[in-house]
Design a protein that fits this description.
mainly alpha; Serine Threonine Protein Phosphatase 5, Tetratricopeptide repeat; 10 helices
Length: about 240
């Protein structure tokens, strides 16, 4: 027995026709508007093309600049490694000055940001601890999500300890604790904080952070050292 054709309810048919009419009417209105304002449509199209060209040109230029800067940065780092190997202090200083000029003459990109990290470590090796701290913190500020950010802050804190600025070092350790306690150097953050409190004769907080190393990172090499430090404090 043949199937009867499905009859669409009158309301549904009318709704679809109304929707179609609305869409068609909209397209007709757009078409009429374009005809009436043909000159402005042409200008708008030219403007859109010009903006697109400018965006593409900017991307290409930024890529060219980044590539050029990376080559400059690699050359400076190569020179530094070469002079460090032979212990040429004068050339090392010249290379560090070149890196500082590189930072001042660049504004974005991987090489620009990494230059702060590299220069901070160079200053640390020269025992110029305040300059080391400044550059390492600037790197961490620029790249807070980088795996190197906690390492930079840790070395900056140690640099301040070397410069006898214990309060400044403690401030950085607190920043490390707040943002990077679960990073790969979390155990060292707690250990160094405990050690610093010990230097500041704050035995209570020193014990607290040594115990945090032991409880949070029981398999860490720093946990074994923390136990020894606690023993000397007479609390184990």
């Amino acid at each position: 027995m043949p199937r009867k054709p499905r009859v669409r309810p009158e309301r549904e048919v009318k709704k679809i026709e109304i929707e179609r009419n609305v869409i068609e009417q909209f397209l007709m209105n757009v078409k009429d508007l374009a005809k009436k304002n043909r000159k402005w449509v042409v200008y708008a199209s030219i403007g859109l093309v010009a903006v697109t060209v400018l965006i593409i040109a900017a991307v290409v230029a930024a890529d060219f600049v980044s590539t050029r800067d990376e080559m400059r940065f690699e050359k400076i780092m190569y020179d530094y490694a070469r002079y460090s190997t032979v212990g040429d202090g004068e050339k090392i200083k010249t290379t560090m000055a070149d890196l500082k000029k590189f930072i001042d003459s660049t504004y974005f990109g991987f090489a620009h940001t990494m230059a702060f990290y590299a220069l901070g470590n160079m200053h640390y090796n020269q025992k110029e601890y305040l300059e080391a701290k400044k550059n390492l913190v600037r790197f961490a500020d620029k790249e807070p999500k980088s795996i190197l950010a906690p390492l930079a802050l840790l070395k900056a804190a140690i640099a301040l300890e070397e410069a006898k600025d214990l309060n400044g070092a403690l401030e950085l350790y607190r920043r490390l604790e707040n943002k990077y306690s679960e990073s790969i150097i979390g155990d060292q953050i707690f250990f160094n904080t405990a050690r610093l409190y010990g230097r500041m004769n704050d035995v209570l907080n020193s014990r607290k952070y040594y115990n945090r190393v032991i409880s949070t990172f029981p398999e860490s090499a720093f946990a074994a050292q923390a136990k020894k430090r606690l023993f000397t404090l007479g609390s184990l």
